[in-house]
Amino acid sequence: MAFWDISNSLSYNALFNFIVGARGVGKTYGAKRLAIKRFLKDQSQFIYVRRYKQEFKRIANFWDDIAEEFPEHSFEAGKGVFKIDGIVAGYYIPLSTSKIEKSTPFPDVSLIIYDEFILDKGTYHYLPDEVTNFLEMYSTVARMRDNVIVYFLSNALTVTNPYFLYFNLEPPTNKKGIYCKNDILIEVVVNEEHTRKMNETRFGKIVSGTAYADYAFGNEFLRDTKDFIGKKPQDAQFKFSLKYMGEEIGVWYSPSQYEFYASPDINRQNEFAFAVTLDDHSTNTVLVKSIRNPLFKSFIKAYTLGKVTFESQNIKNICKEIARLTL
Fold first, then answer.
1. How far apart are CA 72 and CA 65, in angstroms?
2. Fewest 10 Å CB contacts: which of 111, 158, 206, 322?
3. Strand 259-263 relative to strand 308-310: parallel, antiparallel, unpaired?
4. What percent of the chain has pLDDT over 90?
5. Which CATH number fits domain 7-216: 3.10.20.30, 1.10.390.10, 3.40.30.10, 3.40.50.300?
6. How far is Cα 137 from Cα 125, in angstroms, rounded to an integer?
């Protein structure tokens, strides 16, 4: 079976590479192969990043799936390092404690692999100020070197995550599934052979036609749907803005459609802003929980009745979180 080909993204020579796609399509495998080949070529090292220390419990098995591709070499993993032929080829670091490494030099590292950078619902949560944590770790490793590239890897869970929001990223819509701008690349891995093979398995036939099959075997985002996505009409009137986790959303109302619309557009001349959390609160905002504003209440009620349209998937997912916190 053909797996994801990392050479397509490498050809763009981007500094940050965000790779999302179906389960088992070979994202981590391809990144491991790149790390091995780079080390064997010029002894350049890599860093493997996960969010929490607990995620390295099975790190001793890191090389198991790829070692047979390089039978003439030996592979080890443990005690914070990866070894190839007995020589340190890389390191593994939890992002949650990466600040401890601030004084540690990594002069031979030219590749960082951040696996499962998008979280699904569950026990683990994003770190407070997560993106800044990663950027500080990157700065510690790169030390002004421009040759340290990053591969952010994840299953296609949701477009609403701290990294896409921070860099204002959207998945590519072209047939190739790759978009690159300002040294940041996004690739949604499309592998028709992988999808076909998985659909032919007994498990694939059981889940055929479900949202899980679209996510696990295709390239659909599991937690995202196209419901309630659309543009606001011309008669929409700006009502207020919402600030949540550093993002700002404009809330508009259309008297002809009797619906609210959530948009990136904000009327600065008539701005009234609600802050959803204490971290978003400033001198120009009002905390949502501090007052019983009838306009905000009508927006949340409209949300529960399916009378809110969102101009993007990110905005829809953010409003979902706002509603969950305020209902």
1. 15
2. 206
3. parallel
4. 48
5. 3.40.50.300
6. 19
